[in-house]
């Protein structure tokens, strides 16, 4: 029995078309927010990749090493035992001067990873010209390729630890995948963390691309229903 003047407890249901529009609006807003975060972390991943490529702090000396110094992918510095000054050598442009074929291969793959992720950032301009879902998938494949190159570079790099230059710094006990008295430095660890970053970003790019495709198909289906109703 209704009491006069009391507010009605009956809830009004939205029409199905209006509810679908509200859901679609929230869906698009959430996808855009996630897409912005994905783009920001892609740029940060590119910075990490560039730092890992150019910084010579993949391995370095320890307390018991015969010489002071540190090694990167292609650039390295080693002391002479007489003074604290380090003699630095190596450049990516002087590819033949890199002391190990494994270091050369690792430099190539890490460099390719850097190129891939920078190209992916360049593809952001395609959002203004192409389908959003297609651009996400293109970037996803590039990020997956960048992560694969990082994996190969990090796996191949220790194969060059048996080179004469590394042994001069780390001792004669140094061998392939055995660092002797030296230790792994932060650039190598950062590259390994970059692998996880690349895989997560590529997965997210494919998810966003598929969501955009499903959204477009829903919009096309809604337009067809509207035309049929007319």
3D structure, described in words:
- With about 230 residues, this protein is an alpha+beta fold.
- About 60% of the residues lie in helices and about 5% in strands.
- The protein contains five helices and five strands; from the N terminus they run H-E-E-E-E-H-H-H-E-H.
- The protein has helices at about 15-55, 100-120, 130-155, 165-170, 185-230, and strands at about 60, 70, 75-80, 85-90, 185.
- It has a five-stranded antiparallel beta sheet.
- A hairpin with a 4-residue loop joins strand 2 and strand 3.
- Helix 1 (about 15-55) packs antiparallel against helix 5 (about 185-230).
- The longest helix has about 45 residues, at about 185-230.
- The protein is elongated, with a radius of gyration of 27 Å.
- The two termini are about 45 Å apart.
Q: What labels would you give this structure?
A:
single chain; 5 helices; alpha+beta; 230 residues; disordered C terminus; 5 strands
